[in-house]
Design goal:
The chain is of the alpha+beta class. It has 3 helices and 8 strands, in the order αααββββββββ. The radius of gyration is 17 Å and the shape is globular.
Length: about 170
């Protein structure tokens, strides 16, 4: 069993390295596609997921936000969730339905530099909207709310928005 710990440590370091890699200088889609293939071949699942996430961002744009979740005693969520883009909550980003209710839009959520996020936690996150065109009016500094049902699960402040750097069909 102790022999697997060095492998786990290398895997964790590799994932962290890949998360940091693309933020200094923009990398082309082909770069992230090649890294996805390499990570998959080495069975580095989180790294492969991160590289696929970056491919999505190049095609659809980047939305980063500072998210604060409601504490467990105030929210339905009682357990941590994976930070690796698995959760796809709904977001109130401003528009209303014809009846005046908030119109909720779905977006995947990646927690930067953390394997999971706990109730009551705070972290910088990246959002991957299922329908990016619905998020065009979003602006830095705007407050948006996260929902896993009709109740508010957390509040985020938009930090940064970068438009796509590659055509969506590449």
């Amino acid at each position: 069993m102790t022999a697997s710990f060095p492998a786990l440590e290398r895997s964790t370091r590799s994932s962290a390295l890949l998360e940091e890699l693309g933020d200094g200088h923009p990398r082309p889609l082909s770069f992230w596609q090649a890294l996805t293939t390499a990570a998959e071949q080495m069975h580095l699942e989180r790294s492969a997921a991160w590289c696929r996430w970056r491919c999505y961002e190049i095609r659809h744009g980047i939305i980063r936000a500072d998210l604060t979740l409601r504490p467990a005693h105030e929210a339905r969520r009682q357990t941590p969730f994976s930070g690796a883009g698995v959760l796809r909550p709904m977001w109130n980003i401003g528009p209303r339905t014809p009846t005046g209710e908030p119109h909720l839009y779905v977006a995947g959520l990646w927690v930067e530099f953390a394997p999971f996020m706990e109730p009551g936690g705070r972290a910088t996150v990246r959002l991957a909207p299922l329908s990016p065109s619905n998020w065009q009016r979003l602006r830095p500094g705007q407050a948006i709310t996260m929902h896993e049902d009709r109740t508010v699960a957390g509040t985020a402040i938009v930090l940064d928005i970068q438009r796509p750097s590659a055509p969506a069909d590449s």
